[in-house]
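User: I'm writing a tutorial on reading structure tokens. Could you give me a worked example: one chain, its sequence, then its tokens, then a sentence or two explaining what the tokens reveal?
Assistant: Sure. Here is the example chain.
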Amino acid sequence: MRLRKWDGARLMQLDEILLDMDIKQLRKTLLDWYRVSRRDFPWRHTRDPFRIWVSEVMLQQTRTETVLRYYEPFLEKFPDVNKLAEADEQQVLKAWEGLGYYRRARGLHAGAKDIAERFHGKMPQSMEELLRVSGIGMYTAGAVASIAYGEAVPAVDGNAVRVFSRLTGYDACVDTTVSRKLMQALGEKMVDPDLPGDWNQAIMDLGACICRNGQPDCAACPVLSLCRSGGTSMSCVLPIRAQKKEKPVEYYDVLLCFSPDHRYVAVRQRTENLLGGLWTFPMIKREGNQEDEHVAGMPAQMPEGGRSLGHARHVFTHLIWEMNIVECSLAEDQVRVSREELEQLPFPSAMKKALALCRGLMK
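And here are its predicted structure tokens:
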């Protein structure tokens, strides 16, 4: 079928968009496929809204395989919303250590405290109420409300946007405000009123397993006959995304400052938004592009008596850190910790290599 060329006047004409699509058949076919092919995860064996909320937050921008390693241990420490609300932020960040995107952990913690205070420690029971909780947005509220409570609301994440774009042949940029509103409205039109939780999870599985980014497996798609772009070259083009800007690079020396007997090392707590509440080793930022020195493994300004231990690179969502790891002597005014104390502090993934080197050198 020829793809429609979209313009601004047609963006919100949902009835026209869905005119040629049999929504009832789409729901039946996709749900039949989901019952047979659904992925088996621990958060799919519960209707507990808190546990579903935790899983949804963990799954944002993180591979399912990684979340599986953290989900149960996190819930063992914080089995309900009140336990999470009562916890110290450092405890929450330590339990999250290695999952990355720590703003999610801080947001989850803030939301739990909000629920404890304003909702008397009980999880809100509708999408409308969930949206009133600090840190809960449209997607998370829709996922929790549909899966835990059976509310007929969509959960429109990146997978859903990709599926909806290809199903309808939507070839305008999906990153605009208008397009995001349209995708949410499409989700509201398509969601199965009887099994909204299964429907939203079916869309997630379809997007993750078949309607993948870049190269969809159209031949295996259960709703291929209902898809406007399925089996065509446009299936590999859609959805249209805004061009990504090149990530800026920042260069650092990461200092492993040891006491003479290597029993203590210097650390510092970060307060800025990127790593707020987490701990790192002392870091010296270098100005300008000094990539050559990093590749060579030599810091631009080696601390007196220091030696280079290697190079590490960490890619954040919006920037890149290039880091030389340097061993040097501990100064009097630095915060020092023992090996045992070091293990209790939450460190970001960016410090993974530095931590491994530090552990190898500490007594």
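What the tokens reveal: The domain at 249-361 is CATH 3.90.79.10 (Nucleoside Triphosphate Pyrophosphohydrolase). The chain has two domains: 8-236, 249-361.
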